[in-house]
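Standup notes
- DV: blocked on the single-chain target, sequence here:
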Amino acid sequence: MKFLTVVLFVISFFSNLAIAEEVNVFSSRHYDSDIQLYKKFTAETGIKVNVVSGKDKALQKRIKEEGKNSKADLYITADAGRLGSFEKDGMFQTTTSPFIKKQVPETLRSSNWTAIAKRARIIFYSKDRVSDEEIKNLRYEDLANDIWKNRIVIRKSDNIYNQSLIASLIQNNGKDKIQFWLKNFVSNFARSPKGNDRAQILAVAAGEADLAIANTYYYALMLSGQKGKEQKEAAKKVTPYFPNQNDRGTHINISGVGILKNSPNPNNALKLIEFLLTEEAQKHIVENTFEYSILNNVKSHELIESMGYFKQDLKTPVAEFINYQSDAFKLMLISGWK
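- DV (later): unblocked, structure below
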C-alpha cells in the first residue's frame, strides 16, 4: 500500500511538473516570426510554448466559453482597444512586475496587460499632387479642412485601428469637437472606404486619391517586396508623413499581451511576457514585423528607419482608448463613414 502511495505521488508530482513547464498562448498575430521567438524562449527556459492562432472574436469567444476550464494563459493581439475591451469583460488578471514597469512606458500598459510593440498610424501622400505648403505642419485635426475635399482615402469605420485613432482624437479634443470634425473629414473622402491599409496606399499611387491614412508597417511590407513587385513600386510613389509633430506627436497604438484570469500557468506566462520585453526579443520583433520597439535603444527595421525620426504621442494613455471607442464608432457612423 505504501509503495502504491509513493508511486501515485511520483506520478502526480511529475505530471504537475510537466504542466508547470508549459505556457499556452492564444494569439491573433499572424507572424511566423513570433513562433521562432517562442522557440528561443523555450531554448532559454525549458518552458514549452503552445500556440493557438485565430481571429480575435473567435479566440475571445472560446476563452469566455471555456471559463475556468480554459487552458489559455496569454492573450496576444494588436490594438489597445481590443485589449481594453477584453479587460473590461474581466478576462485578465494582474499583468505587471518591476521588470515590465521598467521596460514599458506607463502610457503603453494597464495593470492587466502591456504593450510588446508599437505601431504608428500616419499619412501617406503623393508629392506630385500635394504641395509642400499643404503638408507642412499637418495635424490629424486638419484633415477636415476644405482643402482636402475628395482627396483622402481610409479603410472602413468598423476597422479597429480607425476606431482607436478616433478615440484618441476624442481624448485629446473632446467629443463635441470631434463630432463636428468627423462630418467634415468624411466629406473629404475621395471614395467610399474599402480594402485594407495597403489598398489605401495603392489608391494614392494610382492617382485615385492624394492622401491615405495607414499603419507604417504596411508601407514597409510593401517596400520589402514581400507583397510583389507591383506593390513595391506603388509604395515608392507615396511619401510618408508623421502628423502632429508640433504638438502631442503622431498617434501610437500597440501590439500587446495579458495574462488571462483562469491561466493555469501564470508564472510561466509572466516569464514569457518579460522575455518578449528583453532587448533580444525586441530586436527580433521589429526586424520581422516592421513595428516599433518598446525599448528606446532598439532600432527599427531599416525600411522603417528610412522613414525618419518622429515625435511619438506617448502622453495619450492607450489604455483609455476603450473609454472612448464606443463613442468614436457611433460618431463615425453618424458622420456617414461607411
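- Follow-up: The beta strands are 22-27, 48-53, 74-78, 114-125, 152-153, 211-215, 239-241, 252-259.
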